[in-house]
């Protein structure tokens, strides 16, 4: 069951996206609890966050606005540090390399803050993700936290049918020097992890459901990027009431 907070954030995301030409509800809702937990309980003012799966931006925008920021409401986040966005994303595979660079810069300066990056499972097929995974392990970037929204669906279908990746990525990350944790992405298990005591880069593989919270969206590839309107919009809002 979703909490009232989770339901409200989803309703707000629908309202915000509909008035600004947005969609991508499936990927926005699969990572909603992860984002809520990060913004409500984990991130501090010195930390940095990168939404590598930029298409899942509508919950992200809602949470930024709750904190008093006023980001440009585009279909993918646009670099705007004054409004809490520290990386332009949308092209898959860019977020982890950027977050790794941020982490290395902080480590070289003796800055103890953390860098968090949220990725999609489909983008883990990208070569830049694997290169960054190997390099972050070699550099022992203990201030880097990578979170995979493992909802099993990418833009063109099910990940397992297109190019299975998670089962290969997990042992590779461990071998490369990462701490790897597998969690339920909808039950706040991420809040139980003490990231401040990490001795190596941390990879969180969060099992989630695409379109979580709206019955007709859940685990449905077409809701990766479908427009919401009419009776379906009304049904979604009723289910999230």
CATH fold group: Rossmann fold
Write down the overall geometry: globular
What is the number of helices? 9
Mean pLDDT across all amino acids: 96
Largest sheet: 5 strands, parallel
- Give the total of domains: 1
Poorly predicted ranges: none
CATH architecture: 3-Layer(aba) Sandwich
**What's the CATH C level?**
Alpha Beta
Calculate Rg over CA atoms: 17 Å
Query: What percent of residues adopt helix (DSSP H or I)?
Result: 25-40%
Specify the CATH homologous superfamily: Thiamin diphosphate (ThDP)-binding fold, Pyr/PP domains
Structural class of the secondary structure composition? alpha/beta
Total count of strands: 7
Approximate strand percentage: 5-15%
Tell me which oligomeric state these chains represent: single chain
H/E element order: HHHEHHEHEEEHHEEH
Termini distance? Answer: 12 Å
Which strand order spans the largest sheet, edge to edge or round the barrel? 1-2-3-7-6
Could you explain how this protein is built, in words?
This protein has 241 residues and is α/β, with parallel strands linked by helices. It has a single domain, classed as Thiamin diphosphate (ThDP)-binding fold, Pyr/PP domains (Rossmann fold, 3-Layer(aba) Sandwich), CATH 3.40.50. The protein contains 9 helices and 7 strands. The protein has helices spanning 4-18, 25-30, 32-42, 57-66, 95-109, 127-138, 159-162, 166-176, 230-239, and strands spanning 48-51, 115-120, 144-150, 153-154, 157-158, 179-184, 202-207. The strands form 2 sheets. A 5-stranded parallel β-sheet has the order 1-2-3-7-6, covered by helices on one side. Strand 2, helix 6 (127-138) and strand 3 form a beta-alpha-beta unit. It starts with a helix and ends with a helix.
